[in-house]
């Protein structure tokens, strides 16, 4: 028998306890041993919870109990969970966590602490989608060429509704908050930070790169307008918030931002609150993973899969998939050296000479325009919408700055990167 202590009995923790009870027979058959949820830690003992396990507000009842074999950390946060998980590992317990923020900042320290002790975290990225095990085990014979992931259901839901129903960002944000998809302060989701935490975990497994969220390019969906969506439809693109990891020579691109992506790409078809991750390996080609990225039962499914895996194996495999890094270590590509295509929305003065000035700025910065569309507005203004051929991030940023000060561009230009 394996005894499990759950730290944080909220939506996911409740699902973990109840699934272990409800599906006891099939879980025992698959694990080869009975797995028993024994105790849960909560901050408020007076709050009613739909579980049948003992509840406590004393974490040490779990960490210091020699009969608890596996600690499941579901409390959220960074530094306090780090202390708790560290103590659990030091006490010889296996650990399962769904805490992407903890791993975004402390994954390498935790790998060192874990050693041969099992430490699993499938639920930390894309909820019920088994992308961690796919990368770490199923694709372990491959050099990973690229990862593109829709890993935040709130953003994907909002963009899908904006595209399909023509609603504004503010309208859909309020609806998402009313439905419980977005928090009262939605910045962590809509600002791209949630996706960034998950991308760093995948980047570590794919490339062995130790980077913090502050080191990478992160942009959210707050500035996307219906004008951008209309342009995307005209040129057969969809708009998605993607986490992108890409190997270029011996450098790794890690970035999170909205993307114009062709409609015929599989990742472009992932709509609503669903998540999807595309991984390209040098031998297997593209593989695609799709499913529920959040929710109590979906996330608990991934947590329990990790518990079963621990029951089967006993000893832990390398937490981030590398026994030892061999060869030249990859480095992070500087943000301003990224190369891709770009879409720009410019509000310009609708008068003679405007196009010539805009074209000169692009030409002076070695940027070639691929497509252009003008939409007239009132008061002698127009929206100039255009896409570029592949160019360097620092060149497009310099051009945007020059356009802003050109006298013909009336507002700060809006920019979305393109991934063909």
Automatic annotation (TrEMBL):
Q: In which pathway does it act?
A: Amino-acid biosynthesis; L-threonine biosynthesis; L-threonine from L-aspartate: step 3/5; Amino-acid biosynthesis; L-methionine biosynthesis via de novo pathway; L-homoserine from L-aspartate: step 3/3
EC category name:
oxidoreductase
Q: Which family does it belong to?
A: Belongs to the homoserine dehydrogenase family.
Q: Which CDD domains match?
A: ACT_HSDH-Hom
InterPro entries from the xrefs? ACT-like_dom_sf (IPR045865), ACT_dom (IPR002912), Asp/hSer_DH_NAD-bd (IPR005106), HDH (IPR016204), HDH_cat (IPR001342), HDH_CS (IPR019811), NAD(P)-bd_dom_sf (IPR036291)
Residue ranges that the Swiss-Prot or TrEMBL entry lists as coiled coil: none
Record lineage:
Bacteria, Pseudomonadati, Campylobacterota, Epsilonproteobacteria, Campylobacterales
**Catalyzes what?**
L-homoserine + NADP(+) = L-aspartate 4-semialdehyde + NADPH + H(+)
Identify this protein by name.
Homoserine dehydrogenase
Q: Which UniProt keywords apply?
A: Amino-acid biosynthesis, Methionine biosynthesis, NADP, Oxidoreductase, Threonine biosynthesis
The residue ranges of the ACT domain are 343-417
Highest taxon listed in the record's lineage: Bacteria
Q: Name one Pfam family in it.
A: NAD_binding_3
The species this protein belongs to is: Arcobacter porcinus
Q: Its Gene Ontology molecular function terms?
A: homoserine dehydrogenase activity
Q: What is its EC number?
A: 1.1.1.3
């Amino acid at each position: 028998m394996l005894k499990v202590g759950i730290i944080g009995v909220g939506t996911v923790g409740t699902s973990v306890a109840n699934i272990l009870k409800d599906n006891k027979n099939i879980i025992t058959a698959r694990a080869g041993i009975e797995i028993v949820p024994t105790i849960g830690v909560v901050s408020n003992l007076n709050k009613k919870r739909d579980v049948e396990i003992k509840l406590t507000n004393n974490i040490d009842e779990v960490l210091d109990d020699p009969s608890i074999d596996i600690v499941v950390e579901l409390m959220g946060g960074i530094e306090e969970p780090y202390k708790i998980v560290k103590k659990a590992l030091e006490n010889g317990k296996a650990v399962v966590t769904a805490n992407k923020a903890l791993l975004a900042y402390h994954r390498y320290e935790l790998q060192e602490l874990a050693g041969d002790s099992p430490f699993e975290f499938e639920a930390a990225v894309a909820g019920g989608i088994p992308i961690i095990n796919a990368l770490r085990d199923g694709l372990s014979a491959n050099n990973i060429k690229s990862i593109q992931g829709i890993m935040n259901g709130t953003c994907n839901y909002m963009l899908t509704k904006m595209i399909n129903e023509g609603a504004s960002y503010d309208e859909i944000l309020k609806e998402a908050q009313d439905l419980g998809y977005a928090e009262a302060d939605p910045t962590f989701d809509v600002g791209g930070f949630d996706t960034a935490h998950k991308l760093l975990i995948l980047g570590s497994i794919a490339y062995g790169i130790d980077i913090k969220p502050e080191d990478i390019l992160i942009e959210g969906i707050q500035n996307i307008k219906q004008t951008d969506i209309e342009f995307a439809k005209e040129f057969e693109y969809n708009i998605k918030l993607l986490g992108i990891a890409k190997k270029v020579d011996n450098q790794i691109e890690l970035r999170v931002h909205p993307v114009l992506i062709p409609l015929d790409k599989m990742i472009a078809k992932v709509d609503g609150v669903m998540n999807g991750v595309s991984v390209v390996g040098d031998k297997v080609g593209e593989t695609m993973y799709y499913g529920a990225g959040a929710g109590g039962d979906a996330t608990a499914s991934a947590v329990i899969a990790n518990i079963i895996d621990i029951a089967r194996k006993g000893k832990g495999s390398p937490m981030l998939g590398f026994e030892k890094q061999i060869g030249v270590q990859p480095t992070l590509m500087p943000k301003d050296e990224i190369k891709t295509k770009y879409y720009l929305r410019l509000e310009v003065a609708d008068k003679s000479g405007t196009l010539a000035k805009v074209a000169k700025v692009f030409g002076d910065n070695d940027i070639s325009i691929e497509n252009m569309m003008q939409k007239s507005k009132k008061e002698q203004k127009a929206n100039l919408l255009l896409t570029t051929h592949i160019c360097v991030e620092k060149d497009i940023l310099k051009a945007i700055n020059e356009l802003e000060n050109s006298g013909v561009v009336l507002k700060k230009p809006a920019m979305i990167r393109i991934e063909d």
